[in-house]
Amino acid sequence: MKQLPPVARTYWQVVVAVGVLVTALSADELVRSFPHLGIRVLLAATAFVGLGILAERMVIPLTTFEPETASHSIGSVAVIAAIVVLPWYVAILVAAVAVGLTQARRSVVKAFFNTGHVVVSVAAAALLFRLVGGAHALQSSNGPSLLHAFAAMMTLALVYYVAGSLIVAAMVAMLSHQKIWQVYQANHLKTVLQEATSIGLGLMLGGFWLYLPAFAPLVGLPVVMAYFSIETFVRIQQETRQSVLAMSESIDHRDPLTYNHSKRVARLSVALAEAAELSHEQIANIELSALVHDIGKIGIPSEILMKPGKLTPEERAQMELHPIIGYDMLRHYKQFRKGLGIVRWHHETWDGTGYPDRLPGHKIPLEARIVCIADAYEAMTADRPYRKAMSAEIAFERLEKAAGSQFDPNLVPLFRQACEAIGEVGPAEETTVATPEVEPPHRVFDKPAAIPLAVPTPYRRHKSLRRLPASAGRCRQPGVTLQPEPDA
Q1: What is the pTM of this model?
Q2: I need a labelling partner for 20 at 20 to 30 A (CA). Which of 3, 146, 415, 434 fits?
């Protein structure tokens, strides 16, 4: 609790307090109404609590590229059905018990917040469902009014989803200094289809329970099928991603001097992207793409990659094919398509003399310009067969000299700030970077400073330089290197 920022701590207290209050009021209403509840209501409540506990434990890790893996459970099936079938106060208690028991192994802060936000979401959905006459429309002795019942159920689904998503997104936004919409895109948007499926199955279960109770257990079949179908799909995506990343990492292993090169480039790229205040989605894309930005080198002979001397024009031409090779390899994988521009254009330069397409200035995607600077710095501060590593200060000086000719002139000043923020270097001190992990495009060279062709609007400075943490609550939850030149 103490580790939460003051604003987030206050918000946590409000959510938990409202959840406790709603639960207490529901319990009081249950005590007063208990003599009038039929055995059918009690059986339904018991069944939904059991189903809720089981469903909350059926968690699916989602394909994501975050510090912590996002996940999705199908617990909504039980609570939505409970809202449709049971009195509002019983539905709220069903949610509180089912979620509360499954949160027992979590920290107190997470357990209370997760339970509180679910209780508040269920209460909002249940009360509005009753307010619009959903219970009456479904349980009328004259039979259900189809249009009225459908509108009420859609209202129930929308309120439940929006309330739950906003409560969690607001907490994550406070912890990460991001906007709520950015948090929603980074976390909840990944699970909207799965959540819609769970809510739809909950509405089906509630309808069967009211009108065809004998068929209600059959809803368990599509629930289980949905769970295993999503789990299988996600597992295939994760295995595909890991295979591609392993293939890219194998390039770094070809030369001990370039070991972990891509990981360091990714780390530096993320720091610079944060300093430039890019969105969380862009940062995640940059991190994933930076890890595979040199995957095309798998098609370049080792004698060229590890040649200690100057490359011949023929060898240089062959080396310059690796962005295209990488692009052609990754375009077949949906998970990597957003980063194809980084892979293909990570050797383009600001003045348009790079390769393979000689794109100038802002025609080079911003993400590729970011990876370009990170890759160049990493190359200069690592040992290579043809030279020893440079100090960080010398590398910074060379980046500054090439700003406006080789690199985006507005990103270069932010790079030192980004490196200081992640502890890569001390503030304004000359520091030699440890290097048993690295590799640049080919070789680093001195290039005379050129007059900038254009000076775009400066990027805003990032306020905190902290990464957006993985989402809280139920939804815990997708390059350009230094242009080589002949040695002096």
Answers
A1: 0.66
A2: 3
